[in-house]
Amino acid sequence: MNTLSYGLLGLLARKESSGYDLMLRIQPFWQAKHSQIYPLLSRMEEKHLLSSHWVQQSDKPDKKIYAITEKGMQKLREWMYQPIAPAVTKDELSLRTFCLWLTETGIAIDIFEDRRIGYLEKQRYYEQILEGIPEDTRQIGSKAFSNYILATKGLLMAETELKWCDWVLELLRQQQSITNSDHGRTKFETLS
Known about the structure:
The chain has 2 domains: 3-81, Arc Repressor Mutant, subunit A (Orthogonal Bundle), CATH 1.10.10; 92-187, Helix Hairpins (Orthogonal Bundle), CATH 1.10.287. Helix content is 66%, strand content 7%. It has helices at 3-14, 19-26, 34-46, 70-79, 92-98, 105-131, 143-191; strands at 17-18, 50-55, 63-68. The protein has a 3-stranded antiparallel beta sheet with strand order 1-3-2. Helix 1 crosses helix 4, helix 2 packs across helix 3 (34-46) and helix 6 runs antiparallel to helix 7 (143-191). It comes from Paenibacillus solani.
């Protein structure tokens, strides 16, 4: 079983879901497409880690709902004792930042302004999640505790990324200002 399989089991341990709903629910943790998820669900069902039933819908095609079995719960508990793999980083902004010297300052500012908007949206998203978690449910042993610490992690990361982005934008704008004043001076000196 791969990490995505365990992630799907973890989501199903909280709530039975369709494959499509699982694809949406896993996104904050793990980027996965339906072409990855559906074959895993079939294999886990064959191994009796999941069960399923069909729900008829009048206005849409019928949908298959998955639920975790006791065997699946046991497999998920065993996974909690396994060592955690090193984090995998895929960050296009970092790659572009590494190549920033190849572009104009204005384009660099646009890149970071766009990303800043995304960080602000993430910040608001995690703040809303945290507002919805009552204080008295934020203790270990409750599902809300996991939500609380993950949302706090997401918020702290968004705030840190936002702070970094603002710092880079300040540097870029200073550079743009210096460049613009140098061009203005050169034009003025040329006229005199």
